Amino acid sequence: MKRLSHYRRHKAVAPLLLVIALFGIGTTFNVASASMKTSPNAFARSTQIDEGKQIFLRGCSTCHGLNLEGSAIAPALIGVGAASVDFQVGTGRMPVADMSTQISRKTPVYNEEEVAALAAYVASLAPGPAIPTDAQLNYERDGSTAEGGELFRNNCAMCHNFAGQGGALTQGKYAPTLMGVEPKHIYEALITGPQSMPVFSDKTLTPEEKLSVIKWIKAAEAEPNLGGATMGRVGPVTEGLLVWVLGLGILIAVAVWLTTRAR
Amino acid sequence: MTTVEKRLGAAANFVDERLGAAGWMKKSLNKVFPDHWTFMFGEICMYSFVILLLSGTFLTLWFDPSQREVVYEGVYEPLKGITMSAAYASTLDISFEIRGGLLMRQIHHWSANIFMAAIVAHLLRVFFTGAFRKPREFNWILGIILLTLGLVEGLLGYSLPDDLLSGTGLRITSAIIQAVPLVGTYITFFLFGGAFPGVGFLPRIFTIHILLLPGIFLAVITVHVMLVWYQKHTQFPGPGRTEKNVVGHPILPVYMAKAGGFFFIVFGVTAFLSAVASINPIWLYGPYTPGQISAGSQPDWYMGWLDGLVRMAPPWETHAFGHTVSWNILIPALIVPGIIFTGMAFYPFIESWITGDKREHHLLDRPRNVPNRTALGVMSITFVLISLINGGNDIFATQFDLSINQIMWFSRISIFILPPIAFVVTKRLCLSLQRADRDLVLHGMETGQLVRMPSGEFAEIHKPISAQKRWILTSHEQAPALELPATDARGVRRPGALKNKLRIRLSKAHAVAVPKVSAQDLKEIEHH
Amino acid sequence: MSNEIEAFQDPGEAVHAPRAADIDPRAEKRAEQQVAALFGLSAVGSLLLIYSYIWIPEDVFIFIPVMGDQNAHQLFLGLGMAMSLFFLGMAAILWAKKLMPDTEVVNHRHEFRSSDEDREEFVKTVKDGVAGVQLGRRKLIKGSLAASLGLFALPPVLLLRDLGPLPGKELEKTNWKAGTRLVTDPGNRPILASDLEVGSVVQTLPEVAPDTHRPLSDIAKDPVLLIRLRPEEFNLTPEKLAMTHDGIIAFSKICSHMGCAVALYEQTTKHLLCPCHQSTFDVTQAAKVIFGPAARPLPQLDITVDKEGYLIARAPFNEAVGPSFWERNSQ
Hints:
heterotrimer; A: two-stranded antiparallel ribbon; B: 8 strands
C-alpha cells in the first residue's frame, strides 16, 4: 500500500489507479460479503470496535485508507462520526457498487450488528456526530406534524419535492425519495449532510424541529390517496399526460364509435 | 289530435304569433351535419365549457377568494394551526368538509385540462384539413382568440387556491409582466395592488376568472358556433359530396340524440377521471409563501411549453442608461409566443396569398394532398413538443435517469434543428403517400394471391379499387404554382420584385405534388 | 400535370344498405333492449351516487390494486356520477345509431357573396347616410368630436389608477439594515456564527420584534440563504470576500431571474440551483451564473457578527433583489 500511495503523486498513474481501485472495491467487497455469510461468528469474540476495525480493513480501507485518511476517490472519514457511518452503510450506499454520478440507496451489505461495529470503530478514532438513540427519535411524542410540514417546505421541499418524492439536481444528480426511509437515517442525513445534501446544524434546526420534519414525512408517507390515484405526486406533468392519454383517448374512442354507421 | 299535441300546438302558436319563429326554425331543424370523428373535438370543447360553468358555480358557493390570513382549524391534520390565506383555507374546506366538494374541484380541473386538450386537437384538425380557408377565416381567428383566452383563464383558475405551486406560478407571471420595458413595473403594481404578492390580486383574478372571462368566452363561443351553423359544416371529400352541398344527418332526431348523448359522455368521462385520479392535491403543496419552493414546480400542461421556452432561454440581459431589459424573459415568454399566435391568426390569409386562391372551400383537404401545410403543422407541433419536454425536464430527468443539463442542451439545440427536419420529413412522407394513392388507383389493391403467368412468371393479382374509393383518391385538385412574371403586359417591371420573388418561391413549394391519376391515365394502362 | 383533362366522374353515394335492426325484427328488439339496459345502468349510477353521499362515511379507505388506498366516499361518489352520465350518453347514442333513421340528407350550399344589386344598394345606403352626417363640411364639429372622443377614452383608464400604489423605489428596498440580525425561518431564532458547521445551510429572515406580523410582500424579498464553507474554498474578489464572515456567505434567496426561491444547495459542488428554471449559481464565485437563463448573480448580503456573536447584516443589500425590471440600474 505504501508503494501505491507513492505512485499516486504521478499524474499519469491516476487513471490506472482508478481502475485498480475499482477492481479492488469489487473484489474486496465480494470477498468480504462472502466471508460474512460463511462464518458469521468469526468476529464474535472480539469487542465491537475490534470487529468494526476488521470489517473496515476488509471492506472500506482500500478506498478510505487504513487510517481513515481517504484517497483520491474517497473522502477521509476522520471526524465524520458514527451517524455518518450508520447512514452510509445502513442505507446500503456504502460500500459503493458503481461510481456513477451519485451513490444510491440499495439493500445494505452488512447487517445491523456489523454496521454498529463499523460505526463504533470510526467514532472511536475521532469524535463526530453520534447515532441518535431511540429515546432521541421519539418523533411521535416530540414532533408536530404541521410544524414539520412548514419546516419541510422551507428546508427540504426544494430538493425532495413537496411530498418527499425526490427531485432533480444538477448534472444528473438527484435528491432521493424520502418514502420508506427509516427515521434514524433521516435524522442522520440532516446532521451529517451526505453527498450533495447540506448539513442542518442542531442550533439552526433544533432536534425537536428535526423530529417534526420526520413526523411530517412519516405522515405524508402514510397518507392515503384522498382524491384518487396520485401518479407519483410529482405535480402537473403526469396530470397533463393522463389528460391526453386517458381523457382524450376515451373521448376519441367514443367519437369514432359514434360516427361509424351501425351494422 | 291527442291532448299533448293540442297543448304543444297551442304553445307553439303562442310563440310563433309573437316571434314568427316557425319559418326560421323549420329551416334550422333541417340543417345537416356531416359525420366524422374528428368533427367531435369542437363539441368536446363546448361541452367541457358547460361542465366548467356548472362545476365552477358549485365551487363559488364555498370559495372565499381572499388573501386575508387565517389560521387553519379544519380536519386536515398536517396543516392544523398553520397560517394561510382564506382562499387556501376555503379550498381545503371544499376538499375535505363539503361532501362531493373534492369531486367537483377535480371535475373542474380535469375538465379545464380536457377543454384545452380538445381545443388543441380541434385546432390541429381544422389546420390540417384546411377548414380555415375562405369563407371560414373569421371563425379561425375566433378560435385562436378562444385558445388564448383559455390559456389565461386556466392560469388564473389554478392560481386561485393560493397553494405553494400556484403561488410560484404567479411569482413567475408577475416577473414576466415586470419585464415589459417602460410600463412593466407599473402594471405589476397596479395588478397586484403593490409589490408581489400584493394585497388584492386573488379577489381581482377571481372576478376575472368567474365573470369577465367566462362572459367573453360565452359571447365568442356563441358567435363561433353560430358561424358554423350559418356557414354550414365542412365535409370530407367523397362520392356525392361537392363544394355545393353538405351530406349528413339532420338535427332532428339523429344529430340531436348523438350530440346530446355526447355531452353526457364528455361529462361522464370527466367525472370518471375525477373519481379515480387525483389532480392538483393542494393540501400536499401547502399554503403559498414566497420563501418556499418545491422541486419540480411546473404549470399545467398547456402553459408548460412556455415554461420550457423560458427554461431554455440564454442568459441575456441588457443594462444601459440605468435601465434593464430582460431578454431572457421577454423573448421566450412574450416575443416568441406573440409571433406564434399572430402567425396562427393570419395563416389563412398567408396561405391564400401564396396560392392565389380566393375561392370558397367547403370540401376538406386530405392532409397528404397539401404537403407544405401539413409539414408546417408537424413542424410547429415538434417545436411545441420540444418546449413542453423541456418544461418538465426535472421530472423527466428523475424518471429516466437523465440530467437536467443534458435535456436543457438537447432542447436548446434541437429547438432549432428538429422542426426543420420534421418539415422536410413530413413533406416527403406526404408525397410518398400521394404516390401510394396513385399506385393504388392505377394498379389496384394487392390481394396477396400469386398466379403463374403463361410465360412462367409469377405475378400477384391486383384487385381494382371501387369507383367510390377511386373518387376519394382523385377528386382533389392540384393547382399549379402561381405565375407572376417580373414584368407586366406592357413590359414594365412590377413593383415589389422581392415580394413577388418570395411569393413565387413559396407558391412553387406549395404546389409540389405527385400528379394524380386522370381517367385517361387509367384507360391507357388498361390498354396495355 | 393532368389538370382535369379527363377527370373521373363522381360515382355518387354508395347504395344505402339497411342496418340489421331495419330488416330483422329480432335485431330490432335486441337493440331496444340494449338501449334500455344502458339507461338502466345510468339509473344504477345515480343510485350509487345517492348511496355514497349519504351512507359512505368520509373516512373509509379501501385498497384498489394499482391505485393504492382510496377514499371510498370520494371514489364511489365519482364513479356513481360517471356511470349515471356516461351510460345516459351511451344509451342516447346507441338509440340514434341503431334505431333512428340513418339515411343521410343532402343540403345545398349557396355562395356567401351577396348579389350585385344588394351590394350596390348597400353602398348607396351607407353613402347617403354618411352624406347626411355632413362630417366633411362641418370642420368644427369634426374637430371637436375627435377631441371629445379622445378625452372620453381617458376616464375609464384613469379610474383604474387606484388599483395599486406607484412602484417608487419599493423594488429596491428590503428590510435589511445595518445591524439587523439574521433569524431562522421558521423559528425566528438569532444565529451564532459558531452554530453553523461547515457544509450547513440556513434559511433566514431579518429579525423583527416578537409577534410582529410579517406581510407576504416582505417574505417575497427578504429571505436570505446562509451557507458555510471552508474559507479557503472561496474564489472571491476582495470586496466580496470582505462581505463574508469566517466562511459564512449570505445570498438573497429570491432568484435574479423570475423570483422563485433558490434554495437547492449542493454541498459537494457548492452550486445553488433554482427549481423553477434551473439557473445554477456557483457559491464559491459569489453566486455567479454558471448555467440556465438567469443573467445576474444572486445579490450578496454583507454580514458580520455583533458583540454577542450573532450574525448580523453589516449593510443593506447594495442592489435590488429578485427579478429584473425596467427601472433597475444593473450597472
